[in-house]
Amino acid sequence: MALSLRTWPGRLVTRPWLLAFVPINASTAGFGVVLPLLILIPLHGSWADVALSATLFNSAVILSSVVWGHLSDRYRQRRLFLVINYAGYAGLYVALVHVVSIPELLAIYAVIGALSPAGASASNLLILEKFSEGERASAFASFQSMSMIGSVAGLAIGYFWTLANDTLFTMLYLLGALAVVSAIAIWYGIRESTRKLTTRHVAHHPESLASRLRSVTASKMLVPFFPHRPKIKPRPLRRFRDWARAELHHELPLILIATFLFNLTANLFNISYTPFLYAAGLGASAIFLVNLSNNAAQTAVYPLTGGLSNRFGPDRLVHWATYLRCLGYLATGAITLVLLARSGEFEANVVLYGILGGAIAIYTTASSLMLFRSLAGRDAGSILGLNSALGGIAAVLGAGLSGILAVYGSYRLVFLVAGGALLVSLPLWAAATVAHNRRRRAESEPELPAPAPAPAPARAVDPSAAVKTP
Predict the structure, then answer these.
(1) Which of 25, 167, 211, 352 sits 20 to 30 Å CA-CA off 288?
(2) How far apart are CA 117 and CA 84, in angstroms?
(3) What are phi and psi of 232, to 5 degrees?
(4) Hey, what CATH topology would domain 16-228+244-439 get?
(5) Crossing angle of helices 136-164 and 21-40, rounded to 10°
(6) Neighbours of 75 (CB within 10 A)
(7) 3-state class of 216 per DSSP?
(8) DSSP string across 342-404
């Protein structure tokens, strides 16, 4: 039976309290663009400083996600964790207004990374607990819609703000106020559910899985937040070798490796993209518009991805989305080879980044379905913990590689490396499809009864032995 994932709710908001997630997504989306601009413009930093900030942020996310996941399962106070997350954002945004050096900014940004997993876990568990089994598909679709609408609104606010004035630091007050609005709305507008679940339950719902595999708008990074701690035991290399040997004919290792490459290239590209736009001569308001095209394309395409998955299958959609991302990376590198007017360069980036946004919406849904179906009969919690660890490694490596190329390479090299590395994942997705189909056929074929033993051959009689001589 085909596995489907609903991405278009019956109505836009299944519960009024889901509107509380619009302001916080507007806040984090605006902050995702403001932060690198703060480093590049008023603090006179470089592309390498932006890459370093992303490395510290992602490292903090990895280390703190295990802690927040444990605390979320132990205390199970969803509203409290969300308020801590959003109110903490507001306070840290205000603190950034007063920084006078890049080291101060890096320290505060690392704290923001350490705080971000608190809300990622609590929001998904809140929806799982507040909605019945039949309502969850529409609930998660509405949650995604609120996130995307908020992101578009936040980037639009950033565009009009930077168009009116050049004071990027004071925009942080507005972003902090939006985060406070969400914190207040959640505290007074939502009641805790009497049903309490744990982070392991995320693995049993494809809608929740897709929600957790989306990009982090606070940093424009792709970090899959599954704060379930991977099991740590002695002899990890030996256990990994035994696991790989046992899983040699299963599609799951291929999916994990292909997802790792996708996250690696996405982080490498996204971290370098804003410094590239600034180096190309685009102003702050133009950079906000380019990012707005990406989020607007996600918002427009995402509601269609569920129907597209049912019609064409997630395997085909993953290939299409990966091809689009590859072409977008390579085309962005080609822009650096062509002498365009400033207006032409701006328009080309709007179109290309919009295509990349539509591709990530398709990829998120399709890859979630492929990962979810591979979890059948498995320890889903441990596998998702491994996926989280690989996603964190990809985020840190992508940021680190961006920093290295910032010192020894060029933007053109970054985009070519990202496109080439992502092309490597295409045969992995194809092999995963073949492995899945082969496994399904093997599981569906009935076992044939053992053949009956062949009868013993008759003993030949010698005719001469029966003749008696007189």
Answers:
(1) 211
(2) 11
(3) -110, 115
(4) Growth Hormone; Chain: A; (1.20.1250)
(5) 40
(6) 11
(7) strand
(8) HHHHHHHHHHHHHHHHHHHHHHHHHHHHHHHHHTTTS-HHHHHHHHHHHHHHHHHHHHHHHHH
**Residue at 52: amino acid letter:** L
431 within 8 A of 285, measured Cβ to Cβ: no
Cα Rg of the chain (Å, integer): 26
Stated pTM of the model? 0.85
